[in-house]
Amino acid sequence: MGELETLCATFAQHYGRSPDWIVRAPGRVNLIGEHTDYNEGLVLPMAIEREVLMAAAANGGQEIRLRSTAIDEPTSIDMSPSIQRAAAGHWSNYPRGVVAGFRARHIAFGGFDLLAHSTVPLGGGLSSSAALAVAVATLLEAISGCRLEPLEKVRLCQEAEHGFAGVPCGIMDPFVVARARRGHLVLLDCQSYEAQDIELSDPEVAVLIVSTNVRHTLARSEYPLRRRQCEAAAQQLRVRSLRALAVDDLERAARALDAQSLKRVRHVVTEIARTQAAAAAIAARRWREAGRLMYQSHASLRHDFEVSAPELDAIVEIAAAIGEEGGVFGARMTGGGFGGCAVVLMRAAGAASIMEAIRAQYAQRFATAATLFISRPAAGASVLRQPGSSQQ
Q1: Does the pLDDT at position 21 exceed 90?
Q2: Domain that holds residue 46
Q3: Which of 20, 37, 113, 173 is catalytic?
Q4: Residue 173 annotated in active site
Q5: For position 165, which CATH number holds?
Q6: Which of 68-72, 217-221, 300-304, 325-329 has the lowest mean pLDDT?
């Protein structure tokens, strides 16, 4: 039985009827451009072939009943008063925030029953939370019959993460989850919100995602700290954001900043330049150059931004040792850091041996096994079923 059939069968078990709507929203992986989005810089992510699926049916009331296949803990949202947050860290805060965003925009809809199922690894820096938020937004568009302007939808999902989940994320995650094109990366300018599709459809090249299955306790506190450090440095340098600086400005920054602040600035400024160069290299299929830039990005994240972890460093070291002769062009950590995932650009023909080498050598170093999967660039969020459409 496939994912959709299982989703529908599970929905019927819980709610006693078939769903009227089914939507999907993918996770994402960022090839390069880390911790640049909230500095108004450039990022180069792609949607992945792991996704949040969501089934729903109207219930005739003013309550949204929520279930997840991952957590046997049903909950509900009462839509009669203002939408209330759940306890900190509860998954329902993402739907709550999106529902509140639609209500604030005076978009009307009734109560419904919902079942969410995710194949995106949780907490691995692959935007499982943005996929959840964008899936809810896509569902509410279908239920209400009111489609938001694309950028408005992205901003609404970002607001939900900020206001209800308490995560000060940038625009990248909801943007690529909502708007990616199959077979393409997204070169996104997080200052202007202009996006350029970068083709990555060469069958000889593959993107490997390696989850460490580790999340260090620093992850939750250090992400907002890095954001504050960048904002403080920009203020000290009297610029709106670090995007305003170029590599040539680092010498001036060195005279104005303390050593730690300079390291943070140096990462962001050089990472923006690397992202621009990597997009051009991938568009021209210069895989060796793209891989070199990925290694440089990881080194900068490790030494200047200080957000890597031993598990991430090990994956990059293993990939580098395999090298181009073994089919690896480049590797780097991806996501916020302190665990989560690494991403590897490699030859598709060498996938099996590369994956086995990384899996075996990682297992020799750490007690937790790594999870590996290959993904092609996937499409952004979409409606798979709605009343009046052919059933899938």
Answers
A1: yes
A2: 3-197+378-385
A3: 173
A4: yes
A5: 3.30.230.10
A6: 217-221
